[in-house]
Amino acid sequence: MSMTEIRIGDEERSRAAERLAEHAAAGRLTVEELEARLERTNAAVYARELQAVEADLPDPPAPPPPVQVPWLPVLLLVAAIAGSMAVGHPVPPLFILAFFLWRRLARARPRSYAQLA
After folding, report:
1. Residue span of the structural domain in which 87 resides
2. For 55-83, how does the pLDDT look when each residue is reduced to its tens digit (9 = 90+)?
3. Helix or strand or coil: residue 109?
4. Which residues pair with 7 in a beta bridge?
């Protein structure tokens, strides 16, 4: 049995309807086209029917890649700060370095999908 001959349920129809609404919000579908496609989506029984409803629409954007934190420098910095505080002499340059490392990590992380485009 091929993937297109698999029966679908309410969850699959609901997700397809959400994707269609997103396409309409992006201006890819008119209200009339959206209504017609939603009717076909709600009447769909097989996966191939849902694929046909969305065949001419682009795939949703891929999720942003996870931000990779440089753990070794962060751990070394935390250990250095803790060690300097343990001996009673906090070293200001370590705090400045911690601030710049924090800012760099904050800039590396995208805040929205608009920044990815």
Report:
1. 71-116
2. 999 987 777 888 777 777 777 777 877 87
3. coil
4. 46
